[in-house]
Every structure is written in C-alpha cells, then in structure tokens.
Design a protein that fits this description.
Elements lengths: L1 H9 L7 H25 L2 H20 L3 H29 L5 H30 L1 H29 L2
Helix pairs in contact: 1-4, 2-4, 3-4, 3-6, 5-6
Length: about 160
C-alpha cells in the first residue's frame, strides 16, 4: 500500500496507480524462477543477501525519489527483491525443518512473517503520518541493512565453523 501511496504522492494519476502493482509483479515474476534455480546450484545465503541489497536500494529510491521515474524504479527493485527473497526464504524453511514438522514450520514462519508485517506497517504508517513518507522508507532501509549485516555475519561464522 505504501508503494501505491508514494506513487500517488509524487503525482501519478489515480487511474494509473494499478501500474505500480503491475511493475512490482512483473519484476518479481521475471526473476523468481531463475533465482530459485540459481539458489539450488550455488546456495541461498548470497542470493538472500543480494535480495536485501535490492530492498535497501529500493527503499532509498522511494525515500529520495522526487519524480515518478525514480519511484517506479524503486518499485521495480522492490519486485526484484521479492523475487530474490520469497522463494529462498521458503526453501530455507523447508531445508531446516524435519520432514514431519514442515507444515508446522511453514505455519510458524508465516505467522511470524504476518506479525512482522503488521508491526512494520503500523510503524511505517505512524512514521509517514508524523515525519513524512521518506521516514518510513529510510527506516525500512535501516532494518534491511541490519538484516543484511546479520546475514553476512552468520555466513562468515558458518564459514569459520564449517556449518
């Protein structure tokens, strides 16, 4: 919803607002399958880190963008981020859960993801209302940057310990 609101705020005509979701879905669609194949071949952590990098850039473009072109580029990168992250996260859940608990693992993952989205959306709405649209996107970029650093630290730790 915040992507749609940002496009409208920059001046996109209301009749064209659905184009934001089309662009998002198109870029998600174009990369999800190839990234999934690649994750099976080279591993998941590096691709997930790339997805977080795409989210950071998308958030910054959405925060700083002052024209529709920059906002739509941010939306496209957000779609790429989804293509790099959603399938990989699901595969990581499947990889780490015992076969007899996979359904439970996916249920817990989706419960926690939904709770995180609820909290993040509330925070983003509060930030937008009190400090402007950019503040929510800057905060999102900050959280994505923190997740990116934690993922890199975990990968480095796993390389050192051999796990």
């Amino acid at each position: 919803a915040f992507l749609l609101l940002r496009a409208q705020q920059i001046g996109m005509p209301v009749a064209l607002i659905p184009l934001v979701m089309v662009i998002l879905a198109l870029f998600y669609l174009l990369c999800a399958y190839p990234v999934g194949i690649l994750s099976d071949r080279i591993g998941r952590h590096g691709l997930l880190a790339a997805g977080l990098g795409l989210l950071i850039i998308a958030d910054l473009l959405l925060a700083l963008g002052d024209s529709l072109v920059w906002i739509l580029l941010g939306v496209a990168l957000w779609g790429l981020h989804l293509g790099f992250s959603q399938g990989i996260l699901a595969a990581m859940v499947a990889d780490s859960a015992p076969a007899e608990l996979r359904g439970t693992a996916f249920g817990v993952f989706n419960l926690l993801s939904g709770l995180a989205m609820l909290i993040a959306s509330g925070l983003a709405g509060w930030l937008w209302q009190n400090f402007g649209a950019s503040s929510g996107f800057y905060t999102g970029a900050s959280f994505a940057g923190l997740a990116w650093l934690l993922l890199l630290m975990r990968a480095k730790s796993a390389a050192v310990t051999g796990r």
